[in-house]
Amino acid sequence: MAVQRLHMTTRFSEIATSGNLIHLAGQLADDTSQDIRSQTQQTLANIDRFLADAGSNKSQILSVTIYLKNIDEDYRAMNEIWDAWIDPQNPPARTCVEAKLYAPEVLVEMTVTAVSA
After folding, report:
1. Distance of alpha carbon 41 from alpha carbon 47, whole angstroms
2. Spatial separation of the C-alpha atoms in residues 35 and 41, rounded to whole Å
3. Which pTM was predicted?
4. Fewer CB atoms near the end CB (10 Å): N or C, the chain?
């Protein structure tokens, strides 16, 4: 099966697909000066946009890994935004962990695996 890569830089692709399988690179907020709620909303909007670019949508997400800078402080607020966004008829498998992210102002990052719609 051929691999297709979209939104590439010299370091990585935002989207990599093979067959009907879609992998999104770690997604985060465009404005990392915002609080966890805003960063989560922006991150999910980026996921929506990239899934659409790959011919899919959030109801087709298989799994998500969520990385939080501070799980004790941000888990509840992130989940409030997540719960309002996710398709309740098609919730993906999900893992949420605390992690040291690439920059101190980044509060949340999400990686996604989905299938074509």
Report:
1. 10
2. 10
3. 0.94
4. N
